[in-house]
Each structure stands twice: as structure tokens, then as C-alpha cells.
Amino acid sequence: EVQCAPFEPWGGRDGKLRIVNGAPDAAAHCPQGVVFSTLQGALETEGLERGSVIMIAEGEHEACDLRIPTGVELRSVAGAQETTIVPSSPECENLLVMQPGATLQGVALGCGDIGPACDGLTLVKTESQEGLEGERTTLRYNVFIGGKHGVQIGHGSTLRYNPFFDATAAAVTVDDAAVENSHEGEESALLLSDGLLWGSPIGISGSPERRALAFNNVYIKTTNPTKYFEDPSPTASGEALVSGATFDEALYIANEDV
Question: Is the pTM of this model over 0.85?
Fold first, then answer.
């Protein structure tokens, strides 16, 4: 598997390595069962145990209500600017559903060509599972573009270094029944920091029933930065504003003013 994956270290430890790469010669140097041409094939393979890592090659990949199992990490090789996940059908409710302890890193998620159905799509949903209430779900260095929600929180989750653009309802929303657990000694259903929330009616929609924590974020062209809780970030309160902000849709980055 090391010869097959030159982007060492892949960090799987006790788990399995899986690679998603649709190139015809992608499996030439890999053991059988390591390389899959689709994301669905890699996620639904048998033996994907805790500690496993799925590496996604650059390009566009399709998903529809695909689950990332408990303790499995899904991450890109080339980063979010080169790696996109889009719906395989307008009928999808979510692109990805993350189970407790799962990690998502370094991908862009968007609506692709599904048209008006984008307005009802949730890009990522985190869900709880009996017996795993204490395991935190992690999302970092991803880019969320469009959809009804970028992330729907149903289980204690930590989101860091994720930009969100143009969600039609809220960039992030917390379910009333979301499971709370601990991150660095703080109990919450959501911890969101170092994020950029752009162009949504609501940036982070918390819950009156659950604790949400947010800090060090930037809100731009967002009507209501937070709901049901407060973020001390200056742009959340209107204390600081970013004027003249623009977003490069090809590179998924904001201009230097941001």
C-alpha cells in the first residue's frame, strides 16, 4: 500500500487504505481492493474499519446520501480547489452523512448540475449512533457551495477552516435533538471556528435546546450571522464590516480584503 500511495504518510494506522481514482491505470501498482473508481465503491466496501483512510484523487466525484462510517477519514490528495463532490441525482437529500468519529478533510462540496433541487440539498449531515455518543465528528479545510445547508448537525461536531458560500437557508444548522459531547473540555453540539460564512440568510442557526460555540469567524453578506446563540467574532455583531469583498468561484477563495 505504501508503493501504491506516494502521498505518504496516509496515516491509517490500524485501518485500511482506500483510494478513489477513476484513471484507467490508477490500480497498476496497488494491491487488489485498494483502488476504486467511485466514491460509493470505496465507502461501501467491506472491512472499512475504524482508523481507515479514503484518499480521493483530484477531479469531480459523485455522491448521494453516502455514509462515512465511524472512525473513518475521507480526505483529498490535492485539496478543495482540485477535488469536488457533487450529487449523482436531483433526488439526493444529502451528499454525505457522517457517523460519530468520522472526519472529512480537504474537499469542495456543491450542487453540480441538479438545478432547482440544489435549494433543498444538505451537503453534509452528521448523525449520532447509540453507544458512540462521546465520539466527536470533524470537518476541516473543506469548501461548501450552495445547497439549503452546508452542514446539518445531528451529532457533536467540530468544524474548523471551512468556508461556506450561498446556502439558501443557513450555512450550518443544529438539530434540536443533536447529541452534545466534549471537545477540549467544552460540551457542545457544535464548535465552529476560523470559518468564512458568506451570502446566506443565516450563518449559523443554533438550537434553543443545544449548546453551540463559535469564534474567530468572518461573516460577509450574511443577513443574520447567528441564531439562538452569539459568536464574539467582530463581524458577527456588526462591530467590523468587510466592504468590497468578492469571491473567486474558480479558486474557491475570497479576495485579499477578506
Answer: yes
